[in-house]
Amino acid sequence: MMTATGTAASNRRQTKDSNKTEGAGKQNLGQWGRAWEVDWFSLISVILLLSLAPFIVFFFIMACDQYQCSVTQPLLDLYSGEAKLWSIWKLTPAFSWTAAKIYAVWVSFQVVLFMCVPDIIHKLLPVYVGGIQGGARTPAGYINKYEINGLQSWIITHILWFANAYHFHWFSPTIIIDNWIPLLWCANILGYTVATLAFVKAYLFPTNAEDCKFTGNFFYDYMMGIEFNPRIGKWFDFKLFFNGRPGIVAWTLINLSYAAKQQELYGQVTNSMVLVNVLQAVYVLDFFWNEAWYLKTIDICHDHFGWYLGWGDCVWLPFLYTLQGLYLVYHPVQLSTIYASGVLLLGLFGYYLFRTTNHQKDLFRRTDGKCTIWGRKPAYVECAYSSADGHKHHSKLLISGFWGVARHLNYTGDLLGSLAYCLACGASYLLPYFYIVYMTILLVHRCIRDEHRCHNKYGKDWIRYSNAVPYRLLPGIF
């Protein structure tokens, strides 16, 4: 396996050699990783997303900063002429070196935890899967090794956060929201830097040239990525770090900063803010508790690393996934006990469905089907596929338990949890509901994209699986 420490000349020769076998790879893999060729519709979609996504993030953050979280008022003001784009921009907080220092310390600290602090939690808790773990087989046949220490990083980070808030007082717990828009500019700088570095690296010194995909279209390759698993050295994996460190570790800290701001402004933290903090913390902790399982998900197993993941993890995730808490800073909502209980139950049920469905699949994979699901021996469809090196592999697709109810019932649970976050904010404004709209689009698209990929990968075996489990998300409906 070639690493980033190899010479550039050697890597270029390897890239050229891999391009000679590209035709065979296309024949065997179809679109297992991502597209080989770009049609006009895909190109237009990519350019629109590259152009509009940063402005979408800015629009929602600006709407809270200048329009009390109304998403319609700024549009009406622009339409009527009461506001101009330039006047809105002039009122927007600018980049600051204070925010740059905060962000640089934050990312550097997470790099240190990721690279320099081996996981010990799996030694203290045998039920937790941490330490050195193998990922899924790449299209070229490689199996990468990862240091799973996300839960440990999250715990260390939050211990220091609470130690500061209640004892040391190095900085205010509201430091994040107090620098929110300047931090947005810093996150954008990192996101674009990482995406550009990954793009250039794929040409000059790819980690595994056989797992690179070049379409020849700059915009598509920049956005969707060329390298499958770009790394610096042996252990700094771009995907795992940016998918699971600066953004997701920060998610719960951002919500805590929102709660601290609510306390500062109103003298109390509302039960809606507590609900958002608790439900989203459950999701974040689940991610880190099951980080080894995450190595088998679509992000790691199929997506290449480009702007879509690099910028998305640095900017889109921390700034838009936390909109509910930001909204509640501007519009504190105290829910009735019955309503709050209903939201909590919906969120916990969504989590149960999400986690149990994923657990069934993980159990089935770990035991190679030698287990029981819902008290019975699991049923499955036997599949075969080929990797780019020409080797044939076999896989089993589960059709028992929740996986016999729908092909992506874990996504259904994810959507129910997302809806609970939004409902915790009441129904006065549209902004908190962006998340459920976005997640619905994302997960439905992911269903279709994943199934298209699986159809190309497994062929007729996938058709047999689809016939056995005919629904995607909602049994009897979709």
UniProtKB/TrEMBL annotation:
Biased composition annotated in UniProt, kind: Polar residues: 1-12
Annotated InterPro entries: ERG24_DHCR-like, Sterol_reductase_CS
Record-level GO cellular component terms: endoplasmic reticulum membrane
GO molecular function: 7-dehydrocholesterol reductase activity
Major localisation: endoplasmic reticulum
Subcellular location as annotated: Endoplasmic reticulum membrane
Gene Ontology annotations of biological process type: brassinosteroid biosynthetic process; cholesterol biosynthetic process
Keywords: Cholesterol biosynthesis, Cholesterol metabolism, Endoplasmic reticulum, Lipid biosynthesis, Lipid metabolism, Membrane, NADP, Oxidoreductase, Steroid biosynthesis, Steroid metabolism, Sterol biosynthesis, Sterol metabolism, Transmembrane, Transmembrane helix
Record has Transmembrane as a keyword: yes
Catalytic activity, reaction form: 7-dehydrodesmosterol + NADPH + H(+) = desmosterol + NADP(+); cholesterol + NADP(+) = 7-dehydrocholesterol + NADPH + H(+)
One Pfam assignment: ERG4_ERG24
E.C. number(s) listed in UniProt: 1.3.1.21
Transmembrane stretches, start-end: 40-61, 151-168, 180-200, 305-330, 337-354, 418-444
PANTHER family, alphabetized: 7-DEHYDROCHOLESTEROL REDUCTASE (PTHR21257:SF38), DELTA(14)-STEROL REDUCTASE (PTHR21257)
Function of the molecule: Catalyzes the last step of the cholesterol synthesis pathway, which transforms cholesta-5,7-dien-3beta-ol (7-dehydrocholesterol,7-DHC) into cholesterol by reducing the C7-C8 double bond of its sterol core. Can also metabolize cholesta-5,7,24-trien-3beta-ol (7-dehydrodemosterol, 7-DHD) to desmosterol, which is then metabolized by the Delta(24)-sterol reductase (DHCR24) to cholesterol.
Name used for this protein in its record: 7-dehydrocholesterol reductase
